[in-house]
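User: I've been going back and forth on whether these two constructs are worth ordering. Before I decide, could you fold them both?

Assistant: Sure. I'll take them in the order you sent them. The first construct and its structure tokens:
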Amino acid sequence: MKLILTVLVAAFTVVACVNMGTPATIVTSASPEAAFTCALRAVNELGFTVTTSERAGGLLRAEKRDGGFIEAFVGTAYYTELTVTVSPSPSGQTSLQVRPARSQQAGNLARSSTGMSVRGQDQALADSVARRCSTT
């Protein structure tokens, strides 16, 4: 029983450690609600699946599975993850931040980001969401 508990704690610890990239941050004159709607639309248009959508709290999480050659032969799934936070700024405008992350999942094991680096294309996707919402 003690071993099972130790394994579970270790698994949750690994899942909680996320290797994140540089946040893409913009300030817009749009309301927080309009900026959130824009970010939601942008991640959907880029092919992401929304995993968390808390409009009132200004939190949006989405993921995109990077299938293909490596996954087919190695059996490991790779994911690009975006975390969007929307909040009113002190100036009366709205701040929107999009942070990319990378993770992998081997077979039925817990997803892990250990040793995963955010790729240039992951960062570009975060930048794209921010750019799309800078003119909202």
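The second construct, handled the same way:
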Amino acid sequence: MKLFWRCSLLLLLCTCHLGEDKVSMNANSTVVYQGVSAKEARRLGQLLLDYGYFNTWDERTVYLHKKETQYSVTFLMNKEQFLTDRENIVAGFTVWYQWIREGAFDNASMLLLLADEQKQTLYKIDSTTVASLKNQQ
């Protein structure tokens, strides 16, 4: 029986905390973060509140990670909706990329990922994407 409890405790410790923390911005809005401080996560969350992405009626979670010097922000969305309106969604999130990079990360290197509900990447937006979209206009 003692072995059972030790194994249960070990399993609990391994599965509960995978290196990600979260900060709730309101009852429906959360930033899950890893490799950054809670202050950086709150700064991103506050920007998303101020610009209206986070609100009190839609349940939304954004993922924030940092690897070396590059921030990575992941927005989850319905895959079918993305495939149906890809051009407009990419254009809209390209604007979000610029707002977040300037307002939350002081123009640091950043990658914005659009992903489906299983966190499979649908599209990546970085400074190269922004430059190519500006050249097309």
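Notes on the second construct follow. The radius of gyration is 17 Å. Confidence is low (pLDDT under 50) at residues 4-17.
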